[in-house]
Write a sequence for this structure.
């Protein structure tokens, strides 16, 4: 029986002689949010093939390796699921569009007769990134929605077309927002609704639609809408 040291030495020599090597081939590129760098970077998508090696020489194929994404800046390699995270630029655009859509929905539910509501909505939209948004622009858009037969009030608090637009704007964004971020959007919407007085039934139901699209629980929506009514 060989000594333990002898067996270990033999295993080490075999490990140096035999092994597996993965050869990577670029199959695509683009821009992504690199979790290693913490910012937007260029990437290459790599496809890998494994080969059995003897003395470092690849000989027999051993199948494929899972594709990876390689950062052009830090060289880090990550699973392709990192591409599901929006880039910083894309996230900013998604947030801007979401706040704009939410503001229009709340104004549509409550009307544009209040200058205070329009000013509150415009301020929220400008803070989200649409720096040139004005009260007049928002009022015109709400009027256009009211004239669009696919989006006029149809007896329900939030017209079907506008409810669909809310979900289209908020559903992709919600998974990338922290709970505080989702609540912030709902609170902004609540302040727009409260700018001209207490919530109307239509505004409450529109805010409930916003909360559902943001995956906020119903009891938390109720809590937040009540908190928005309390002066800070």
């Amino acid at each position: 029986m060989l000594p333990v040291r002898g067996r270990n030495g033999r295993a080490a020599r075999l490990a140096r002689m035999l092994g597996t090597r993965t050869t990577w081939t670029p199959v695509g590129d683009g821009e992504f949010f690199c979790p290693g760098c913490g910012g937007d970077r260029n990437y290459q998508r790599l496809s890998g093939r494994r080969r059995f090696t003897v003395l470092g020489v690849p000989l027999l194929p051993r199948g494929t390796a899972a594709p990876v994404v390689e950062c052009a800046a830090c060289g880090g390699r990550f699973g392709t699921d990192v591409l599901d995270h929006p880039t910083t630029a894309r996230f900013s655009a998604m947030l801007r569009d979401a706040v704009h859509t939410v503001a229009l929905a709340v104004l549509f539910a409550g009307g544009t007769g209040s200058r205070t509501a329009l000013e509150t909505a415009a301020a929220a939209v400008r803070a989200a990134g649409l720096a040139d948004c004005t009260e007049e622009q928002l009022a015109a858009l709400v009027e256009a929605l009211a004239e669009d037969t696919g989006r006029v009030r149809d007896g329900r608090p939030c017209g079907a077309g506008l409810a669909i637009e809310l979900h289209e704007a908020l559903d992709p964004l919600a998974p990338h927002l922290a709970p505080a971020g989702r609540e912030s959007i709902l609170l902004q919407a609540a302040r727009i609704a409260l700018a001209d007085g207490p919530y109307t039934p239509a505004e409450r139901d529109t805010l409930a639609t916003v909360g559902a699209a943001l995956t906020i629980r119903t009891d938390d929506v109720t809590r937040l809408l009540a908190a928005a009514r309390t002066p800070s």
Summary: The first strand starts at residue 18 and ends at 34.
